Amino acid sequence: MIDKTTWTLQSAVADIPDGASVMVGGFGTAGMPDELIDALIAHGARELTIINNNAGNGDAGLAALIANKRVRKVVCSFPRQTDSWHFDAAYKAGEIELELVPQGNLAARIHAAGSGLGAIFTPTGYGTELAAGKETREIDGRHYVLEYPIHADFALIKADRGDRWGNLVYRKTARNFGPLMAMAAKCTIAQVSEVVALGELDPESVVTPGIFVHRVVAAGGKS
């Protein structure tokens, strides 16, 4: 019997080692798996490479992970907001490395990893410092930059509901990056508001099929 449910948040992240690369789903606070991140902080893994749309908001979630000095490097599109003070402080102190990736490229590179592509050509970034040292090519009169897929050891994502096979449905914009990251990580851990019985999810509404999910843990609350 396939049963990917995990009883506690702590056990869901217990095997994430120091130095792991971890994708974190969501767009800002929408779809951020805060409870899984709190469990990761309690677990104690350090020197992590975090792939996310931004570098944390306020004092919770990813910002708390940075504040606890667990992050070695951040790969993101928007490192600075009005409430990104923990990242700002760590970056200014030289405690954290930043790889800046345009948002479309970030999504495309993660998608490339999940789709098994070796690389992609994208026009975004051509002629800027972001393209320095990278292969470029002219295709049909337009200039492109070669970018490589972004893989990860783990993905922490948040969905609305899931079943024991790992099938997931999301709530509105909380699905940002989660489905792509689930495909691109070696181990995907999904935090859901509720684990439902098999057959209760409308197959037409399933966004992330269970084949991409390794663990499901119920954390309560709306996603």
Secondary structure elements and their pairing?
Layout (H helix, E strand, L loop, with lengths): L8 H4 L8 E4 L9 H10 L4 E4 L10 H6 L3 E6 L8 H8 L4 E4 L2 H13 L4 E3 L13 E4 L2 E6 L4 E12 L4 E2 L8 H7 E12 L18 E4 L5
Protein name: 3-oxoacid CoA-transferase subunit A
Family: Belongs to the 3-oxoacid CoA-transferase subunit A family.
InterPro entries: 3-oxoacid_CoA-transf_A, CoA_trans_fam_I, CoA_transf_BS, NagB/RpiA_transferase-like
How would you briefly describe this protein structure?
The two termini are 28 Å apart.
Strands, count? 11
DSSP helical segment count: 6
Helix content: 10-25%
Which structural class matches the secondary elements?
alpha/beta
Extract low-pLDDT stretches.
none
Order of helices and strands: HEHEHEHEHEEEEEHEE
Q: Rg, please? A: 18 Å
Question: Whole-Å distance between the termini?
Answer: 28 Å
Largest sheet: 8 strands, mixed
Please, could you describe this protein's structure?
- It is a single chain.
- By secondary structure, this protein is of the alpha/beta class.
- It has helices spanning 9-12, 34-43, 62-67, 85-92, 103-115, 178-184, and strands spanning 21-24, 48-51, 71-76, 97-100, 120-122, 136-139, 142-147, 152-163, 168-169, 185-196, 215-218.
- Helix content is 22%, strand content 27%.
- Strands 1, 2, 3, 4, 8, 9, 10 and 11 form an 8-stranded mixed beta sheet that branches.
- Strand 3, helix 4 and strand 4 form a beta-alpha-beta unit.
- The two termini are 28 Å apart.
- The relative contact order is 0.19.
